[in-house]
Amino acid sequence: MNIKDMIERINELAHKKKTQGLTREEQAEQKELYKRYLANIRSQLKAQLDNIEIVDEAPEKLN
Length: 63
Prior knowledge:
Helix content is 70%, strand content 0%. It has helices spanning 3-19, 24-50. It contains 2 helices and no strands. The chain starts with a helix and ends in a 13-residue tail after the last helix. By secondary structure, it is mostly helical.
């Protein structure tokens, strides 16, 4: 399942939870989708942080 479909399904379940309530199967599905979505976000953030290069240049001396 791609991220767009995952978000769409998470939103569907969230809406249904507010209006009708969820079955046990839907609750389990929602929990798994949240888990997978957060894992995806964490991996993207980690990849971005791993690509950051810190450059610490010494300030020029003032005469």
